[in-house]
Specification:
The complex is a heterodimer of chains A (430) and B (373). Chain A is of the alpha/beta class and 430 residues long. Chain A folds into three domains: 176 residues, FAD/NAD(P)-binding domain; 114 residues, FAD/NAD(P)-binding domain (3-Layer(bba) Sandwich); 110 residues, 2-Layer Sandwich (Enolase-like, domain 1). Chain A is 21% helix and 28% strand. Chain A starts with a strand and ends with a strand. Chain B has 373 residues and is an all-alpha fold. Chain B has one domain. Chain B is globular. Chain B starts with 17 loop residues before the first helix and ends in a 19-residue tail after the last strand. The chains are: A alpha/beta (430), B mainly alpha (373). At the A-B interface, helix 5, strand 22 and helix 8 of A face helix 4, helix 14, helix 15 and strand 2 of B.
Chain lengths: 430, 373
């Protein structure tokens, strides 16, 4: 049995480990053109910043591939011959497989603005992206970070810390409306501005303006304003890295994601998909890829069991995530509805929804608890650390707000001696 | 991101460049001069540091007892800790744990390991370090030293070594000493801050560490026993007295001077800050055993780790914290000095230092898992 795994990220590696745990003799080949070793993609910002080395971001020791008898093939796959069960590399060579896992991940969403094509416009997703940006990001240069999500704030941070003058250009009227409300976003913007980032809200990019020799000169905004820039980073999200599958027997969603069933099988026999590139069913029944580290890991494991013939289904648990906006910690759990939709229009609050909110006096810290029909359904915690496990437990146990507020301190996960959670005078329910 | 750690890998002091090697050589040289005085083999026929201390003392009109290279060393050491402490706080001073820990370890150094011994000497008493204990300060259990000190000091010494410290390590982890009190750890966590990421995370280093640190502890116990026995029966058995003298001198040279001083600090720029604490310190070995049995642990938040490796990178004891974090495994490692940097630099808040099981549902303590990865 030859298992080929296309992609050396967390979904691919976890699948390979799970396959080896059950199949001691099968041949397992990991195919990648990015790096010879599995590394942590979310850690690339720290590599860029010189805080860790690329080697430090490799979660396993380098002897793992030999110990597990994982074969490695470095190269870029140009197409899939699903009928012939072979990967066809760009150089024309083929790799035959019995079972294939597509764990090809994402790439930066192509920049849509006029003038995007050309030098100086970067993404921040792959190792190649980083290397390109690293060559051009010189102290004192002016950088425009276009797009206000999680990657955007990471790029703004590492470029700012490198000594570039950073403009953070955000289309929406506040930062990260998919996850933060107006109060929370104001808190983040306050923090970023205090650190010296030029945060531009409600700024729609019209054109990437190029000057002599095609070099970026400025970013022109709708309405006529211009932001001077020597380089730009497009952080408007990621898309599945599946262009090479167009025309193959593997059915793709409109987003480019590989359509999978509950067992993460694609529509082509002998082909599975996991991680950022796989379209899966969410708790709200929508079909989207889950672009998270822990879901990619879980999907890799489930896909491996499925490839081994287990009757297994990938079930997504209740949503949670965490991140950091510069020094501001953020934990979210459960259902925290966006106040603004992807189209930029306000989304009306669901019937019976109430919000408990407090901004901790004197600190960049806030807590938001979403209550629906007297049951707590979601948390958004900014500026302190929280253990999502008890938060999720309370959601699943359908606890009322007063119970949760009475016990919330038990879920705090800040370093010892940090200020403890308490309800402050200004807390409000809206 | 932990602002301040930026460019760690680009800075020539921190990335084992020739600057780091030169700094290491400088530290080696300084410690060799300090411990071994004149070094005829190197053509140095007089005690350079002692002469410097005497000249400096004369220039400052210091009392004669203070005109010693050891006072000079203590001064430089303390200043290095104060300056390093300020540097550390600029990087990591944004949480109370790190602020208090740094204030404590620097404050203890200034008061108990620097000023108080000087005051004792100026007033004609024998110098004594109230924050150092056997087996780190092995001579405090030598009969000759015990007899030379007042009862209360001897009581303090025995209470600390045999009762209070093991108990404190059981309840709080050895961090209460190694990261909050001890001057060796204090220098590592202040002056040594630019080097903490250089500790080896390999399993080979771990297996060497387990043998070497417990080997030194055994050597300390044996040396103390031999010296004590010699005090009792040495006069009647001159052959044993000679043997005991060689054991005592040998331990003092190999462990006291070479390992803890010359290598321990000299290797900062090449192997990280806690070479002595990790591979040699008998006190750390003893407290580590109490810690392993005790209530201290690093709790891991479930399924939140992104495997970025900041925790492992910045662990000065070379613990591969990420391996536990990825496995959702709370853990206690004997070597952990509880500096808290793993939790501090984690971008997802996955780790937390704790002393006891936290209950978040009535009657359901979280399982404490001590694993051998």
């Amino acid at each position: 049995m030859h298992y080929a795994i296309l992609g050396n990220g967390v979904a691919g590696m976890e699948a390979a480990l799970a396959l080896r745990a059950r199949d001691a003799s099968g041949r397992i080949t990991l195919v990648s053109d990015e790096h010879d070793h599995f590394f942590s993609r979310p850690a690339l910002m720290y590599v860029f910043a010189g805080q860790t080395s690329l080697r430090d971001t490799e979660p396993y020791d380098r002897g793992l591939y030999d110990r597990m008898r994982f074969e490695r093939r470095k190269g870029r796959v140009g197409s899939l011959d699903a009928a012939g069960r072979a990967l066809v590399f760009e150089d024309g060579s083929r790799l035959a497989y019995d079972k294939l896992l597509l764990a090809v991940g994402s790439k930066g969403r192509p920049a849509p603005w006029p003038g995007s094509a050309g030098p100086g416009l970067h993404c921040f997703v792959t190792l190649r992206d980083l290397e390109g940006l690293d060559r051009e990001a010189n102290r004192g240069s002016r950088a425009a970070v276009l797009g206000g999500g999680l990657i955007g704030v990471e790029v703004a941070e590492v470029l700012h810390d490198r000594g570039l003058r950073v403009s953070f250009v955000i289309r929406e009227s506040w930062y990260f409306p998919a996850a933060l409300d107006r109060n929370e976003s104001a808190l983040v913007a306050e923090h970023l501005r205090a650190r010296g980032v030029d945060v531009r809200l409600g700024a729609t990019v019209d054109e990437v303006v190029r000057g002599d020799g095609g070099r970026i000169r400025a970013i022109r905004l709708a309405g006529g304003g211009e932001i001077e820039a020597d380089l730009a980073v497009s952080t408007i999200g990621v898309v599945p890295n599946t262009a090479f599958l167009a025309g193959s027997a593997v059915q793709l969603a409109a987003s480019g994601a590989v359509e999978t069933d509950d067992a993460l099988r694609s529509t082509a026999p002998g082909v599975w998909a996991a991680g950022d590139c796989a379209n899966v069913t969410w708790f709200d029944a929508s079909r989207r890829p889950e672009q998270l580290w822990y879901t990619a890991r879980d999907q890799g494991r489930v896909a491996a069991r499925s490839m081994l013939g287990d009757d297994v289904a990938y079930r997504r648990g209740t949503w949670y995530n965490s991140a950091k906006f510069f020094d501001l910690e953020w934990t979210t759990a459960g259902r925290v509805p966006a106040a603004v939709g992807p189209d930029g229009n306000p989304v009306p609050a669901p019937e019976g929804e109430r919000i408990w909110y407090q901004r901790v006096p004197g600190r960049l810290e806030s807590q938001r608890i979403v209550v629906e029909r007297d049951r707590v359904v979601g948390f958004n915690m900014l500026g302190s650390r929280w253990n999502q496990e008890p938060l999720l437990d309370w959601i699943h146990e359908r606890r009322p707000l007063d119970f949760v507020l009475a016990h919330l301190g038990e879920a705090q996960f800040d370093e010892e001696l940090s200020p403890r959670f308490r309800v402050h005078a200004g807390a409000e329910v809206a | 991101m932990q602002s301040g750690l930026m460019n760690t890998y680009e800075h020539p002091v921190s990335n084992r460049s020739w600057v780091a090697w030169a700094l290491s050589a400088l530290l080696f040289g300084a410690y060799v001069l300090l411990y071994f005085g004149p070094v005829p083999a190197l053509g140095l026929r007089f005690d350079l540091l002692q002469r410097a201390a005497e000249a400096l003392g004369a220039a400052l009109s210091l009392p004669a007892v203070l005109r010693s290279k050891w006072i000079l060393y203590g001064t430089v050491y303390t200043l290095a800790m104060i300056a390093g402490g300020a540097f550390f706080l600029r990087r990591h001073g944004n949480t109370p744990y790190q602020r208090l820990r740094t204030a404590s370890v620097v404050g203890v150094q200034v008061v108990f390991a620097f000023l108080l011994p000087i005051v004792l000497q100026v007033f004609g008493h024998q110098e004594y370090y109230f924050t150092y204990f056997w087996p780190l300060k092995i001579e405090y259990f030598y009969p000759s030293v015990i007899l030379a000190h007042p009862f209360l000091i001897v009581f303090w010494s025995f209470l600390g070594s045999l009762v209070a410290f093991p108990l404190l390590a059981y309840f709080l982890g050895k961090r209460f000493y190694c990261s909050w009190v001890c001057g060796c750890g204090g220098l590592a966590n202040t002056f040594g801050e630019p080097f903490r990421h250089l500790s080896s995370k390999s399993t080979r280093a771990w297996s060497i560490e387990k043998v070497s640190i417990h080997g030194v502890l055994a050597a300390a116990v044996v040396t103390t026993a031999v010296v004590s026995l010699n005090w009792a029966v040495g006069k009647q058995h001159p052959a044993f007295a000679g043997f005991a003298f060689r054991v005592q001198e040998g331990y003092g040279f190999a462990i006291g001077a070479m390992f803890s001083g010359v290598l321990g600090v000299g290797l900062y720029p090449l192997m990280g800050t806690r070479v002595w604490c990790r591979f040699g310190c008998p006190m750390a070995a003893l407290l580590g055993l109490a810690q392993k049995l005790g209530r201290f642990r690093i709790r891991v938040k479930k399924d939140m780790c992104i495997a970025c490796g900041n925790c492992s990178t910045y662990c000065e004891m070379g613990i591969d914290v990420r391996a536990y974090a990825m496995a959702n495994q709370s853990f206690t490692r004997a070597s952990c000095v509880g500096c808290g940097l793993c939790a501090h630099v984690c971008p997802r808040g996955v780790l937390r230092l704790e002393n006891r099981p936290v209950r978040w549902k009535a009657g359901q303590p979280i399982r404490v898992d001590a694993v051998d990865l």
